[in-house]
Amino acid sequence: MTATDRPGPPLWLLAELTYRCPLHCAFCYNPVDFARTSAEDELDTEAWLRVLNEARALGSVQCGFSGGEPLVRDDLEVLVAEAHRLGYYTNLLTSGVGLTEDRAEALKRAGLDHIQLSFQDTTKELNDFLSHTRTFDLKQKVAHTIKANGWPMVMNCVIHRLNIDHIGEIIEMAVALGAEYLELANNQYYSWALLNRDQLLPSREQLERAERITNEYRAKLGDKLRIFFVVPDYYETRPKKCMNGWGNVFLTVTPDGTALPCHTAKMLPGLAFPNVREMSVGEIWYDSEGFNRYRGDGWMSDTCKTCPDKEKDLGGCRCQAFMLAGDAAAPDPVCDKSPAHQVVLDAVARAQQPGAVTTAPLVFRDPKASRQIAP
Amino acid sequence: MNADANPRLSSHFRMQWEDAQQAWVLLYPEGMVKLNASAAEILKRCDGSRDVPALVADLETAFDATGLEPDVRAFLDMARQQQWVA
Ligand code: SF4
Ligand code: SF4
Predict the structure, then answer these.
(1) Domain A10-284+295-374 belongs to what topology?
(2) Which of A7, A112, A337, B67 is at 20 to 30 A from A301, Cα to Cα?
(3) Which residues contact A311 (CB under 8 A, 6 or more apart)?
(4) Ligand 1: distance of its center to the CA of A194 in Å?
(5) Is A198 exposed, middle or buried, given 0-12, 13-18 or 19+ CB atoms closer than 10 A?
(6) Residue A63 labeled ligand binder
(7) What is this structure's pTM?
(8) Any idea where the Radical SAM core domain is (chain A) (predicted)?
(9) Whose CA is nearest to atom 5 of ligand 2?
(10) CA of A303 to the centre of ligand 2 (A)
């Protein structure tokens, strides 16, 4: 980066309030070593209030509260109220566990603008299986509470090999619950989902069928339900423009106060990411090494630096490059120009086998598994 | 939908001035649109209190201009399609 391209403000602030979560999703995007952050390590209310104020002063305007399960924090209402007062558009990303009618009303009074309700599947059995808990009746109750409070009804469902064949039922369910937006987000293979990749990556046939069915519903439902279908990037030949550019618009603050350009970036070796306990959000965004490292194109390998498409995707995802090519500055291996593209092709080839791809058990996200993987 | 119904910004969108961007923005679940000056002037007037001819008249007075109607209608068509305006 040259001194003249000072980045714009961190328009998007993602506050990961806690890693505590009652669910155990096999595709969880939290780091596999999340259990190293205990409840005592979490930022307290005052520290979060300071982060909200500092980021807003820089120009942050979208604020997401996520986790873990953000409803585990009993100061959520206080934080939402402050964010609202400061002029943020406030989003709560939740599985719905803990969203009682009382809390929903308190959040409404605090000024919460939007709730994104995530769910795993429409089939209770499969849902309970995937999250290891019986939470589905609850999701239906929560959906009604959301509607009753006048929030837009936005649902998110992570799609993968084990539920993709139920895509029609998932859409039907969203309609029945009164959803206005439905995001069918194909699993991205980071963290827990990477551990479980062979079990979760759908086959091409499954994917094509799911897209076809989604399009049929789009034609039938029109504006009543807007459906977003996110394809898994493993099936692409060009990578995604990850986070819309490193340190470009997104700022994530993890439960212990570490500031990241993306919620998975902590895995990258040799990068010191600053903590909001020690640095102001402004210094973090504009001056820290962690945020400046992959801005611009100075860091790129020659494959990307000389590529005519580099403005389109900025070389893709740094975490994916590190995970699959062993080098965070390499082209994202999803790209067919990447020397490591074969890794992606191999995973995709394995996914074409019918039925269960491996007999290895799914690893469910829980503190015990986390401590085993990362003691 | 009646193109002459009083246009009103949808309750799922919020419009506000952002100092850091020196622009009016439209905020919605997990998203944001930065508005140019004329879009902002039109949307500010989409409060359900006036129909399209009154909205055009108001803009023409405020900016001492004439013949804005086609542009305003084209913008409102797009805004309705995006569900910004009902
Ligand atoms: S993905 Fe599942 S386990 Fe992970 S934080 Fe979200 S609800 Fe909890
Ligand atoms: S070579 Fe690099 S910049 Fe070019 S398309 Fe591939 S990842 Fe993107």
Answers:
(1) TIM Barrel (3.20.20)
(2) A7
(3) none
(4) 15
(5) middle
(6) no
(7) 0.89
(8) 7-223
(9) A309
(10) 7
